[in-house]
Amino acid sequence: MHIAHYASLSLVLLGVTADGLRAQTPADRLVVERLHVPAMPTHMDQADLLAEVQAGRGADAFLRAFLHGDALFDTAFNELDGVGANVGTGMRFTRMPRADLIAPGQWARHFPPRATGPNAQSCIACHAAPVPDGGGPVTANAVRDPRRAGVAGQMIQRNTPHLFGMGAVQLLAEEMTMALHAQREQLRANVMQSRRSASVALVAKGVSFGTLRGDYTPTSNSVVFRTSFVTGVDGDLVVRPFQWKGSVATVRDFNRGACHNEIGMQAVELVGHGVDGDGDRVVNELSVGDLTAMTMYVAAQPRPVTTLEMSQLGLGAGVSFQQVIRVQNGEALFRQVGCTDCHKPSMELDAAIFREPSAHPSYRDTIFPAGQSPAAESVRADAPVAFDLTADQPQNRFVVNGRVVNLGALKRSSTGKAVVSLYGDLKRHRMGAGLAESVDETGSGADTFLTENLWGVGSTAPYLHDGRATTIAEAILWHGGEALASRDAFRALTELQQRDMIDFLNSLVLVKGGVPFGG
Ligand code: HEC
Ligand code: HEC
Q1: Are residues 67 and 154 in the same domain?
Q2: pLDDT for 2 beyond 90
Q3: Nearest to 62 by CA among 304, 377, 292
Q4: Looking at residue 84, what is its pLDDT?
């Protein structure tokens, strides 16, 4: 009783009110409301999307969601939308995690707990280089304090990656997870049949994830799985392809977190209907439909392209014959020195339809973080908003010789499968002490990172998880740990060979443009 009393007393002395931002009284808020409007005029209604899908107008639902998501991504939200948070003294945004602000409703007690920020008014404030939805400069780095210690030396920072081709990345992860789960079930069946312990080498899309052991337990007549020799993926064998450390499985989950952490826009599925988790006096900042829309927008971002394919289509700056030879030689060397052990040039999808919610249970919410049932919120796996990754991306449709070429869509292989040229393996690797962070944020090792997909790498300096590498050569030379041998092999190349390899990497680029949708 006494302690609580003192606490509120000291807050009053500091001029901090427990219910909101100091700088603004409710009366001030009314002034703002009279003079301004929210930056977001409407919310997307998930029930409308569902009705459209159920009425057989899935293509319309997708396009409407995409356009709304595009608008949300670009909007600089304002006070009336509930952007930012109560950072304690009314500052609303902070680039520095504030573990010191512990009064009710302040940074450290936000619901859910903050990981960073709020850092910006819009998504596009960071994901903008060199084209919209691209990466970010070091000024757009996100600073996090995983231990909530408020100690600068224990904070980590991350560079902003590009968001191209995200839908394809999630689908690859889904199919790899299905393969790994099938191998686990096969092992279970074998062990149960033989009643003897056994092991299986886990492999998905040509990527090895170590060995899973299944021990037969006679007392319960069941199998206990041992994951100590499983590598590069969590013990549940769910491939999580997002975040530098590979800790997030779905675009929706990432976006939901980014809305809260980066821009202080809280989704009702994160905090609940009518709940003000970030102390800014606004509730219901983003609807379930808004999150679906942002998910479709990010998932349907065009794939990165190459300067060679642009040149072949007569688009872009054009590439000389000599340059083509150098790039091709550089790609051969990239394989030769073992970069492709991790940066696998391409993987194929068995099915190229992105669905939100996903058909795969590990890639959709069983229950939303705030406790709602997705189905009750009209998010239904039997009627998802969907699009075809080989055809439907609305952006990067270019007119070539009077014909529309959809450069945003995935190509198909000779066998008709969608090809994802990601130059990655969606697997985590130990990268050596030089790249280790001061804090092991996700428990997978301080020096462990997901292989960064190199598609688009020619457009996304600076490089590496914290943006320390201003050039591609530096990024390569920082490789250690599992990548030591290939780093040394790169060092051992002649200068001309090294130049060719960098030319090759610089040929993997991001473009954004083309004709308006439907053109
Ligand atoms: C302050 C800059 C900043 C803002 C604003 C920002 N992001 Fe990001 N974004 C980042 C950083 C940094 C990462 C990498 C985070 C990590 O891996 O630790 C990232 C990663 C992502 C990823 C995962 C990409 C991948 O390949 O792993 C998605 C998706 C994403 N952001 C979406 C959004 C959306 C949607 C918004 C707006 C709600 C947004 N971001 C706002 C900086 C930002
Ligand atoms: C053992 C796996 C592995 C091998 C082998 C490997 N890499 Fe990487 N690469 C990674 C990981 C993991 C990262 C992300 C590291 C980080 O951010 O700290 C990365 C990052 C990069 C980046 C920076 C990308 C960006 O957007 O920031 C470049 C460029 C790169 N690698 C090129 C190469 C080249 C060239 C080779 C061969 C000489 C190579 N890599 C070999 C795993 C590997």
Answers
A1: yes
A2: no
A3: 292
A4: 96
CA distances from 46 to 53, 192, 361, 390 (A): 11, 44, 20, 25
Domain hosting residue 181, numbered range = 167-226
Indicate if 61 and 128 belong to the same structural domain: yes
Residues in the chain: 519
Cα–ligand 2 centroid distance for 278 (angstroms): 37
Q: Which residues line ligand 2 (CB under 6 A)?
A: 244, 334, 337-339, 341-343, 429, 431, 435, 449, 451-452, 454, 457, 460, 463-465, 472, 475-476, 479, 482-483, 486-487, 490, 505
- Give yes or no: residues 352 and 476 share one domain: yes
Is 42 in the same domain as 63? yes
Q: Which atom of ligand 1 is nearest to the CA of 450?
A: 27
How do residues 286-310 score in pLDDT, each as one tens digit? 999 999 999 999 999 999 999 999 9
Determine, yes or no, domain membership for 83. yes
DSSP code, position 200: E
Only one residue has tokens 């780093």, namely 487
| Same domain, yes or no: 275 and 386 | no
Q: Is there a contact between 453 and 424 (Cβ–Cβ < 8 Å)?
A: yes
| Cβ 106 vs Cβ 100: under 8 Å | no
The partner residues of 356 in beta bridges, in order of sequence, read 385
CB-based contacts of 159, cutoff 8 Å, min separation 6: 135, 136, 138, 140, 141, 462, 463, 464, 465, 466, 467
pLDDT tens column, 481-497:
999 999 999 999 999 99
> 292 and 317 share a domain?
no
Tell me the CATH number at 444: 1.10.760
Contact 138, 178 (CB under 8 A): no
Q: Which tokens belong to 471?
A: 């050039």
Q: What is the Cα–Cα distance from 393 to 66, expressed in whole angstroms? A: 9
Are 214 and 68 contained in the same domain?
A: no
Sign of CA dihedral 112, 118, 122, 123: negative
Question: CB of 167 within 8 A of CB of 299?
Answer: yes
In 195-248, which residue ranges form alpha helices assigned H by DSSP?
Answer: none
Instruction: Give dist(CA 501, CA 200) in Å, integer.
Output: 37
Spatial distance between the Cα atoms of 332 and 325, rounded to a whole number of angstroms: 11
Q: Which ligand is nearest to the CA of 117?
A: 1
Alpha-carbon 186 to chain mean position: 31
Q: Is residue 76 one of the residues assigned to a domain? A: yes
The answer to whether residues 199 and 111 belong to one domain is no
The pLDDT tens digits for 368-380 are: 999 999 999 999 9
234 domain residue, yes or no: no
